[in-house]
Amino acid sequence: MAVPLRRLHHVSLFVSNGHKLASDLVSKYKFNLFATRLTDRSTQVAFRKGAAVFVVNERPTQSALGLNEWPQVAGNDRNDQNSADAPRVSLGKHKRSQPSCLYDVHLDHPVDSVSNVCFEVSDVERAFKELRRLGCDFYVPPTTVEDENGLVTYSVVKSVVGNVCHTLIDKTKYGGIFLPGFDVTEKDWDLEKEDLSCPVTHFDHVTYACPRNSTHQVMKWYEKLFGFHRFFIDGDEDVDEGFVVNQEGVGLRLTAMEYWKCSKAGISLPFTDKSEPDCKFVIAESLPHQSRNQVDTFLEQHRAAGIQHIALYTKNIVSAAHTMAEAGVQFFSPPPAYYTEVGKRQEIEEAGHDPRKLSEHGILLDADLQQDPSSLKECSGNKRYLLQVFTKPIFAEDTFFLELIERRGATGFGEGNIRALWRSVQAYMENEREGGPQRKTVQ
Ligand SMILES: O=C(O)C(=O)Cc1ccc(O)cc1
Ligand SMILES: [Fe+2]
């Protein structure tokens, strides 16, 4: 049986310059640094904005990796594991015997990467046994970590997507703010006021860039192991083909899935917001015989399949994008004609937005044609729509980027927005990344 997930706990990144990313997350993306784990062998720093939590891990140098580093993939001989043998890490006294990357695994990926989506589950030992039975490989077997606030048990499972792994964590016996081993720097969660100028509340979706023809295998894996369910991005979407965007040179196949959150009983503060929606997962692969796209570029520069972007949900994209842009975030912008073309201008105005305001930061709007009356209450008038804006890649390579998304009743992804994003990225590749228009090759 699939292992039920309680909720997405955090997403972790491995970067060579943790300081640079930390400073960008705080000053540009308006995240708050709230917990740190600094040892002689590792630097792990946690940032949050609403329920969206990133943990930044600085990639350790080879010489810093100790002899007691966790095995890269635990062998299949631990099926009979019981909690009595689970490694136990007591914090505070034996810092030197701790793994360098607590709650995670360092995979020595050659470029900066977002590689772990950590989920809360209710019984890690049981999840471990069940997933092993279903054929999963684990990087870290069930391990218990404790401090004065209680204990958590975690395990790290290898996924079928490139370097992506999932930490499964049980926090039901933990009363602290974050995780044992982290020093919480921002103690008073209740005092945190909602950042009205940049209101980001949670992760909306995680998008994987995958090689051609791998979507089916990835989807099956998540369905079988974690009970993910397919959801249709578009009403006309073919069950096998997925949502195909195959016009004007784009060439993408998108398939989306989501998981059902199980009971939240016992989850420790501050994550008890009952209305917190689920995070969706999108699998993107490129189609043959089309121009090169963001997925191809990701696979080449990231050197493996993996997490291509993460969307941050906001209630006010105009304000959030404006605040971030003022702080130095660079967004992709569609060609100016996008906002003046009659159909789009009308769509924007009918949704109650000002095309000039959206154009300032490259915000895209797409009306949703699917009819689901239950979500109509969230939007003005009778049209459901969504607004999106995409940052330029945040690492040195053209790999990972962030997205802001504001949903007004629309649950999927806009085909028009994807085409507009594609045009923006093409222009960026040709003009900015390759040294400006003078080096553009005429075809
Ligand atoms: O539209 C979105 O936000 C998606 O997540 C779909 C998507 C996937 C891959 C791309 O390169 C561009 C867009
Ligand atoms: Fe997205």
Summary?
By secondary structure, the chain is an alpha+beta fold.
What keyword list fits this structure?
single chain; 443 residues; alpha+beta; 2,3-Dihydroxybiphenyl 1,2-Dioxygenase, domain 1; 9 helices; disordered C terminus; binds 3-(4-hydroxy-phenyl)pyruvic acid; binds fe (ii) ion
What this model shows, in words?
- It comes from Fundulus heteroclitus.
- One of its GO terms (biological process) is aromatic amino acid metabolic process.
- Residues 66-92 are annotated as: Disordered.
- The chain has 443 residues and is α+β, with helices and mostly antiparallel strands.
- The protein folds into 2 domains: 5-60 and 99-184, 2,3-Dihydroxybiphenyl 1,2-Dioxygenase, domain 1 (Roll), CATH 3.10.180.10; 200-265 and 276-371 and 382-434, 2,3-Dihydroxybiphenyl 1,2-Dioxygenase, domain 1.
- The protein has helices at 18-27, 124-133, 215-226, 294-302, 317-326, 337-340, 342-350, 355-361, 415-433, and strands at residues 7-15, 32-38, 43-49, 52-58, 88-90, 113-120, 138-147, 150-158, 165-170, 183-184, 200-209, 229-231, 243-245, 252-258, 280-286, 306-314, 364-368, 384-390, 401-408.
- A 10-stranded mixed sheet has the order 5-7-8-9-6-1-4-3-2-10.
- α5 runs parallel beside α8.
- The N and C termini lie far apart (54 Å).
- The site of 3-(4-hydroxy-phenyl)pyruvic acid has 14 residues, from β14, β15, α4 and α9.
